[in-house]
Amino acid sequence: MFHPKEYLRVGTILKPHGHQGAVKVTAAAAVLDFLKSAIEQGNRFVFIEIMKKPVPFFMESLTMAGEETAILKWEDVDSPEDALKLRSHALMLPIHDLPMELQQQPENFDLEGFALFNLNGDELGIIEEVMENSLHSLIKVKVEAGKELLLPLHEDFIVETDVENKRITANYPDDLLNLNNTGTDPI
Questions:
Q1: Which residues have C-beta within 8 Å of that of residue 10, sequence separation ≥ 6?
Q2: Distances from the Cα of 179 to the Cα of 27, 101, 119, 124, 183, angstroms
């Protein structure tokens, strides 16, 4: 049985690459290094999120294409058409398979669905979306019915990330929390 808390999104399939069914993926450099080591050690499967569930795929090879991009070839995915079906899907790994340092440093795409708490332990809301812009990332937090917050996703505000419990503790100033509240009442 699939339990969402047991898996962590670690990357994204960007697009097909070449004519043999390979794909270009993006992930943190440490995740790509982990996958490359896993292939070398014979642990060649990773999960792809399909219809909100992890489906196992076997990796044939991984070649670095940049600091946070790689070309990944799957077994039984042998054409650009097959590879195209995987575009934009998330790469997932069981949390228990990841080293602790990777478990505690989720990438932006992992944060959707995390609960956001202040230093007092009060829940501010649930992260619905991570939005990228040229300067920095923003998180859209659903506070309550009809209310949302847009907050900068920056290490200066994040105090603790608990991946296993999908919980982030942050220290946002009250003025910032009330500044962009799209509802009418302060938080």
A1: 27, 28, 31, 91, 92, 93, 98, 102, 107, 110
A2: 33, 34, 19, 14, 10
DSSP structural state of residue 115: E
Q: What share of the chain is helix, strand, coil (3-state, %, to 5)?
A: 20, 45, 35
For the stretch 109-153, pLDDT in tens is 467 888 999 999 999 999 888 775 545 668 889 987 778 888 887
d(CA 9, CA 24): 16
**CA nearest 117: which of 89, 151, 91, 88?**
151
CA R_g for the chain? 18
Q: Which residues contact 2 (CB under 8 A, 6 or more apart)?
A: 53, 54
Tokens encoding 125: 């809301």
28 Cβ contact partners less than 8 Å away, ≥ 6 residues apart: 10, 11, 68, 102, 105, 107
pLDDT tens readout for residues 176-185 = 888 765 554 5
pTM: 0.59
